[in-house]
Amino acid sequence: MTTALTAPLISWYEEHARELPWRHPEFGAWGILVSEFMLQQTQVSRVIPKLEAWLERWPTPAALAAAEPAEAVRMWGSLGYPRRALWLHRAATQLAQQHGNTVPDDLDALLALTGVGDYTARAVAVFAFGSRHPVVDTNTRRVLARAVEGRSQPGAPAKRDLDAMLAILPADAAAAQVVNAAAMELGAVVCTSRSPRCEACPVSAACAWRAAGYPDTGDERRRQARYEGSDRQARGAALRELRRLPADDGLPVDALLHAWPDRAQRDRAITSLLGDGLIELSDGLAHLPRA
56, 62, 63, 107 — which has fewest CB within 10 A? Predict the structure, then answer.
């Protein structure tokens, strides 16, 4: 099974991989770390221009650490899940102060950075430093569920995903890096969730789901709540109001989201933003976080 999957994956990836900035050898570990923060639950097309602008402004961890946290939140803009901007700022501070302004290649050191979980740590170790680890994102999990387990959709994330990916990795670290990237790419552009293009799949001959006749085995994934009308929408609107202000200005807290139609939702949004550290209050004024 390993050869049946890995050999065609590598060949397909070498011919069809998208040109993405973080895949270039000279991109660097800091750029890869920033890209992994931005890519969490965010489309590649939205990330690329923001990533380029971010790295032009803050080309090193120390450059970002020297900026106000408010500037990171402001620069994050509409990428969504803005806590990632604060976490990235804190991680940059750790890198500048504890790691000599460099990104470490050790998994434990990476995991000790704010906002870095198991996936991000493995992705940076593999794609920035060439380490041999299984890297499993949502796209990879779907490929493994179908090709290896014969299921139409993956279940909840579990250790078995890492074990399944490790089982198909070549022993050679460089080849393993390619297979990790190829499995992600395949899930992103061919083995998609709703409309898989099985006729274009390089591993269709070895796919357990295809061999079983493409059964619908159910979908246990947790559905994300709609954005329209949600507390997330209210939070985003509050941050937009504050990002429009000059850097040192604030807004009276009673005026923040003053026209929001649901007062209870407005209050929840502001309370949660305060709890996350995305806004602060001083002298009755709400503002983006300061150092």
Answer: 56
